[in-house]
Amino acid sequence: SGSTFSNEQKFNSCAFCFDVLINKFDSKKKIRDPKLPSGKFPLFVTWKIFNPSYKEWRLRGCIGTFGKVAMPQGLKEYALISALKDRRFNPVEKSEIPKMAVNTSFLTNFEDAKDCYDWTVGLHGITIDFETSFSHYSATYLPEVCKEQGWSKDQCINSLIRKSGYRGHVSKNLLQSIKCTRYQSVKAKMTYEEYQKA
């Protein structure tokens, strides 16, 4: 469940990502044991970089998986993949690290929803699955997306249906046929400055 992560473990998950990334450039850097919960979790790692001219954090890499990966090895793997292999960006360079922040997100509490409206905005992420006579469609939004966009549930579901690639008419029958899975996320973030004090 979501409560499997203590605040200390959330904090440790971020410090561990910095340890792993710095170690990639400097093998003398020790990687501390993050003492994360045992078990396997879907997860996402997001790196941001501070842009001084705009005084804002910009995305620098974000990759994750809905497959369940073992801790801490899975977190180590995705900390590096998201920093170095996100095709939208050049790989992170050592000189950028002091201007960076990391966000970790572990997905937990997967449950079948009664229908495509059986979830709470801001609390749940949702995955929808449905079929037409021609094809199978699926799409997901993490818990923060709907809230950040200021969407109602209807707007969120309609956006997800389009995200899945479906371009046809959204009928009542289609909405009733959707299999919806809801889930929650355990999130943490840390800047490099906070990491220095960790």
Structural write-up:
The protein has a 6-stranded antiparallel beta sheet. The chain contains 6 helices and 6 strands; from the N terminus they run αββαβββαααβα. It is elongated and about 60 Å long. With 198 residues, it is an alpha+beta fold. Helix 1 (7-25) packs across helix 2. A hairpin with a 4-residue loop joins strand 4 and strand 5.
List the helices and strands and how they pair.
Blueprint: H1 7-25, E1 40-51, E2 56-70, H2 73-84, E3 100-112, E4 125-131, E5 136-141, H3 143-149, H4 153-163, H5 172-177, E6 179-191, H6 192-197
Antiparallel strand pairs: 1-2, 1-3, 3-6, 4-5, 4-6
Largest sheet: 6 strands, antiparallel
Elements, N to C (H/E): HEEHEEEHHHEH
Number of helices: 6
Helix content: 25-40%
Distance between the termini: 26 Å
Shape: elongated
> How much of the polypeptide forms β-strand, as a percent range?
25-35%
Backbone CA Rg: 19 Å
| Parts with pLDDT < 50 across at least 5 consecutive residues | none
